[in-house]
Amino acid sequence: MKKWKTLSTKLIEENRFASFKVDEFETAEGNKGSYYYHLNNNAACAFAQLSEDQFVMLREYRYLLDQISLSHVQARVEIGEDAIDAAHREVIEEVGYKAGEMISLGWMASAPAISKEVFSVFLARDLSLEEKNNDEFEDTEVVIMSRAQIDEAVVSGEIWDSNVIATWQKVKMFLDSES
Length: 179
Known about the structure:
This protein is of the alpha+beta class. 22% of the residues lie in helices and 48% in strands.
């Protein structure tokens, strides 16, 4: 497959969280078009593992879908911040644990057809209790779940966020490789 050529990039809108852009492009065959997309500082997500078979999950409200979500820790990476530092910060803020070990499991693209965002995947271990400190727009409930309960929640649709499902798959593959 041949890559497309970017002819120009225009900023449409920008705020402290993200920017929205449009590229004018040309395919290898000479077809021209416009491509609209979202750009931010990327994200980090972490499954916090309390013990061999216990994980710290979150229930939270997701405004855009007007639904309660069962999720793992998800963090916006701040400008100048490393993804691993964002993961450490958010594990404390969202679930109230400090990770003694943060294992990198790679990265994934969240929605590559409409966003340049990538998210780094981590497994947080060696947890010790800290004070939970959600920001003003986060209202989360900590839920402790076993591996089987997380799998059941994916099958039942209680976990419906594709990033959570994909991250959980990477975590399970890593855990299986340790066995």
